[in-house]
Specification:
Blueprint lengths: L1 H15 L19 H7 L4 H4 L9 E4 L4 E4 L7 H11 L5 H10 L4 H7 L9 H8 L2 H13 L1 H11 L3 H12 L8 E2 H11 L4 H18 L7 E2 L12 H7 L15 H14 L9 E5 L20 E2 H6 L3 E2 L8 E9 L2 E7 L1 H7 L5 H21 L1
Antiparallel strand pairs: 1-2, 3-4, 5-7, 5-9, 6-8, 8-9
Helix pairs in contact: 1-2, 4-5, 7-17, 8-10, 8-17, 9-14, 10-17, 11-12, 12-13, 16-17
Bound molecules: calcium ion.
């Protein structure tokens, strides 16, 4: 019984933490973080595979809710692949190379299954937090901090991001590098770029970024592994994030976010710095509330993650911050469900910055709460 429950929990975690989601344009279809990659790879036939229509020549049609997806035996046969090849040839890649790379890419049914299983939309904060804020992840975080103390301190000096936030991100994304994904990045990005119409444009863009990355870094295009959404390494960077934000923090000439903890830590810190982390500022604030709350005070979509209402305006509505904050600062009002209860907080600028890593309030709250727990346990252990 207990075993079953644990398995279910890790499946949920997979759908949740969107690795590198940072980079995920929308949270609902997040990449799996945390082990789930392996789990989904082991899963048997996907619904898509079961629903396949009989073969017609070399193509297969699959009816989905959205549209008919035509599948070919290999990726160079896809009409979109021809355009992809043309565009990459304009950047100097050879047609022969591009065709051979796309021929090498293999569709992964388990990825299509995993990405169409939204987890965040279903989970309450009460359930979500149990997955990420638990004793083992906290104690492993303390150990990771102790082992990388000097590097974390240097990252704080250089980028202004505190150790507990960096540690918590890496803890949520990959359990401190233990579960970084077992799909070939090439397969993941080709599968989603050509066989997942809802997000294909985004993932074909990431496939382009991936080809630029392997060229620049001089690595074998088939060698890199990642999550089912192509997120890689300790902090689960998708290719565009790697190219834009990864840093060579140990200055050995390589930005190695896969095996080098120093580079991984520096890269996460740099990501936060570039996205506007404000050193020393709070992340959330407790509030006192008016008798009535209006529904439109609470955001629903991704655009609503951006704070637009000032602390002063919230105060005018009767939503008073318990922290002493400048009235011109902006905040979102968060409503989190825990069993029968609702919790309210003001999400401040730095809370918003955490959502740049993964576009979800639950994710940001999990990272923040985990960071606080790790910090407390780390201080106690000193
Ligand atoms: Ca390096």
């Amino acid at each position: 019984m207990r075993k079953q429950k644990l398995f279910a929990t890790s499946l949920i975690a997979m759908g949740l933490a969107l690795g590198g989601c940072s980079f995920q344009p929308d949270a609902e279809s997040s990449a799996g973080v945390e082990g789930t990659q392996q789990k989904s790879a082991q899963e048997s036939q996907s619904p898509q595979a079961k629903n396949q229509a009989p073969k017609q020549g070399s193509q297969t049609s699959t009816k989905t809710e959205e549209e008919t997806v035509v599948r070919y035996d290999s990726y160079p046969e896809y009409p979109d692949a021809q355009l992809f090849i043309q565009e990459m040839m304009e950047e100097g890649f050879s047609e022969q190379y591009l065709t051979s790379v796309l021929s090498e890419a293999k569709r992964q049914e388990s990825i299509l299954k995993a990405i169409s299983r939204p987890a965040e939309g279903r989970l309450t904060w009460g359930k979500y937090r149990k997955i990420f804020i638990e004793p083992k992840r906290i104690s492993q975080g303390v150990k990771f901090w102790q082992e990388n103390k000097t590097v974390l301190e240097r990252a704080e000096q250089v980028y202004g991001v505190p150790p507990e936030i960096i540690v918590a991100i890496i803890g949520v994304e990959t359990r401190y590098g233990r579960i970084t994904g077992s799909y070939r990045v090439l397969d993941a990005l080709a599968t989603l770029g050509f066989d997942y119409p809802r997000r294909s444009k985004f993932f074909r863009g990431q496939l382009k970024e991936y080809l630029r990355l392997v060229k620049e870094e001089q690595v074998d295009v088939t060698s890199l592994k990642g999550s089912y959404a192509g997120a890689m390494g300790y902090g689960q960077f998708i290719p565009s994030s790697y190219r834009n934000y990864a840093v060579d923090f140990d200055q050995d000439g390589k930005r190695d976010i896969w095996n080098n903890k120093t580079d991984a830590i520096g890269s996460v810190a740099n990501y936060f710095a570039v996205h506007g982390w404000k050193t020393g500022e709070p992340v959330i604030s407790a509030v006192s509330l008016p008798a009535t709350l209006k529904d439109d005070w609470f955001g629903k979509g991704r655009k609503d993650l951006i704070p637009k209402v000032t602390i002063g305006e919230w105060q005018g509505r009767g939503v008073k911050s318990k922290l002493d904050l400048a009235p011109e600062g902006k905040a979102t009002l968060l409503r989190l469900e825990i069993e029968e209860d609702l919790q309210y907080w003001l999400g401040l600028h730095n809370f918003y910055v955490i959502t740049r890593y993964n576009h979800s309030n639950l994710y940001a709250m999990a990272v923040y709460r985990l960071s606080e727990e790790i910090k407390r346990a780390y201080s106690t252990a000193q």
